[in-house]
Amino acid sequence: MSKVKQLDSLGVSAFCESMGMMARAGIQTDEAIALLGQNRQTDGVLGTALEGMAAAVQEGQSLHQAMEASGIFPAYALEMVRAGESAGRLEETLMRLSDYYRDQKTIREKLKAAITYPAAMLVMIIVILAVMLAAVLPAFTEVYDSMTGSMTASGYSYIRWAYGVCWVALIVMVILALVLLIGRAFWNGGNRAGVEKLLRKIPICNDILRSMGLFRFTSALETFLASGEMQDTAVAESIRMTDCQPLEEQLKACLVRMEDGHSFAQAAYDEELLEPVYGRMLLAGERSGSMENVLSRLTKLLEEHAGSQVDRLVGTIDPLLSGVLMVTVGLALLSVMLPLIGIMNGIG
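The structure assignment produced for this chain is given below.
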């Protein structure tokens, strides 16, 4: 039996938002699923699953059980819906889940752009350098060979130097492209932890991974608390969503402090989990009884911070690769033009 394809983040977000809005309007779960199935814009994986979900709910199953039976929803969404139903806060949980998966989609798109653009630049640089080596430089060499009597040894050395510069740059660019391809293959092949371990050795990449991990954690914690979970349970469950090993270790240290009687906000502040301004913001929210509102605001700030770091990385790589291309091609062309300038001066 073939494995059922799961919904992507945007699909989960749309489903949760639609169900949450209908729950807010007082529509029963089975009627809401049926109405969603009648929407002609609902097709693909979700459209196929809605009929079975509606039948399951009509038979007395909960929304969580119907979603689980469909096989198209991620484990985190299932766990959150189960917790929301148990606490009687399904509507609020669904709306939080919608925000969570929409934000996840935004972050993934930024990361995709951060990888795709440099990869495209690398391909362009490789093609240009290949053309230089295969067509442009040989054309100059042929012209100079026909003018052997006017060429000096230094003229030939200039051309050899141009070839050398282009070959070195081409080899470096090809190696970088291969590293990207291998890294992506390992990432998609299930060795994501190994790739992240290497990326964490690069300061800016390490900052991005940590910011994204914190964003996922606070977003999950906000949703768990909204579903009615106890704070220690919510923190323990949210740790699994970080996908960042160093951050997980720091969060586990916070859990140890919580077992000793500290609140999460105090434990996070003592462990320096967040920047001081964010840590004090969390403490103030907990003491004022508005923890969920503060977490919501903090999640947005962390999302913006992670996005700005990704933009900063792209903004650094773009001019760097463009500079490599311009300098390499410029030096190569200058090298092949110098003998011609010498010949013209000799004729003059």
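Interim note for the steering committee: Residues 53 and 69 are 8 Å apart (CA to CA). The chain has a mean pLDDT of 79.
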